Amino acid sequence: MSHDHDHDRTVKPMVDEITDFEVLEIALRELCIEKGIFTAEEHRRFTEFAEQIGPTPAARLVARAWLDPDFTALALAEPMTASKEVGVDWMEPTGFGTPSDFTAFQILADTPGVHHVIVCALCSCYPRPILGNSPEWYRTPNYRRRLVRWPRQVLAEFGLYLPDDVAVRVQDSNQKHRFMVMPMRPEGTDDWSEDQLAEIVTRDCLIGVALPKPGVTTNAVTTTRPAVHPIS
Questions:
Q1: What region holds the Nitrile hydratase alpha/Thiocyanate hydrolase gamma domain (predicted)?
Q2: What is the span of the domain harbouring residue 173?
Q3: 101: helix, coil or strand?
Q4: Is the same domain home to 37 and 118?
Q5: Known binding site for Fe(3+): residues?
Q6: Are residues 44 and 113 in the same domain?
Q7: Residues 158, 153: Cα–Cα separation, whole Å
Q8: Are residues 84 and 171 in the same domain?
Q9: CB 211 within 8 A of CB 186
Q10: Same structural domain for residues 143 and 61?
Q11: Residues with catalytic roles
Q12: Cβ atoms of 110 and 183 closer than 8 Å
């Protein structure tokens, strides 16, 4: 007796559904729990904490810097101290004894002639204590490999077209160094409060793939067009 078999509906083995990094994370997590480095409950609490972090603290930092030149100077000279002013302690971000393993943090200020954008060409290093978890596209090889070679092309795919006289500086994160972008304050916001300004400093602005604009808030969904290999 023959049976029709729908291969498209066959459930694949679990091992094919997770990446090598996920397998490594599971093994390392279970080993740390077994060795008593932390408990399963502590890991759960940290995971929940990490998942709820958003770009709000960094947006608040930028908004405050736009309004206060002294705070701007502090943010650029002592970014970890400025982070504490908006409620983020890089050395102990969770508040319950789980210190960050990286402490070199720098804020990159855009100018009329220079635009910054961040990437981690090797993997996906990201300033999580102040920006939360990185977006999925930030971790893709497509973004990581191409941004360092064709930054204007990639920025254009996010809808950001910069004038030719604006230099684009790509800052590559690494194991011990994290970066975030401080964009320039947009026109038409002269009388805005810190709360109003913080709302338009989106995560994409803090990465450098967008510019803050009145009416475009942290709830906006960025539309990207398909990647096209540059002509030259």
A1: 20-210
A2: 54-207
A3: coil
A4: no
A5: 120, 123-125
A6: no
A7: 9
A8: yes
A9: yes
A10: yes
A11: 120, 123-125
A12: yes
